[in-house]
Amino acid sequence: MDDYEAEFADHSPPSFTHRAENVIKDPQGFNPGLIVLLLVGGLLLTFLVGNYVLYVYAQKTLPPKKKKPVSKKKMKKERLKQGVSAPGE
User: Fold this and answer.
1) Could you read off the pLDDT of 18-34 as tens digits, one per residue?
2) Which residues of the chain have pLDDT under 70?
3) Which residues in 32-70 are b (16+ Cβ under 10 Å) and which e?
4) Dihedral through CA 44, CA 50, CA 55, CA 58, nearest 10?
5) Among 89, 66, 86, residue whose Cα is nearest residue 76
């Protein structure tokens, strides 16, 4: 057994050697799908954060919306519903 062990003492298993050589010889770099995903995710996040910032800014600086004036016809109907006679009737 000593001869056998001595013969292969400096060798590593073939699967390990093969994988190590592939990593050393052929570095892939970045995965293109990952780059696209990060780019689209970053743009979406920027859009959402920007919208939130604009919304908060608008709430602080813009005056509140003016309500539409109630028409005389609607006021008359409301008074009749409440039982108060409209003036002039």
Assistant:
1) 555 555 555 668 899 99
2) 1-28, 84-89
3) eeeeeeeeeeeeeeeeeeeeeeeeeeeeeeeeeeeeeee
4) -150
5) 86
* 64 phi/psi in degrees, rounded to 5: -65, 155
How many angstroms separate the CA atoms of 40 and 29, rounded? 20
Q: Can you read off the two tokens belonging to residue 74?
A: 């609607």
Identity of residue 38: L
Tell me how far apart the alpha carbons of residues 38 and 83 are, in angstroms, rounded to a whole number: 65
- Residue pointed to by tokens 């005056």: 63
DSSP single-letter state for residue 30: S
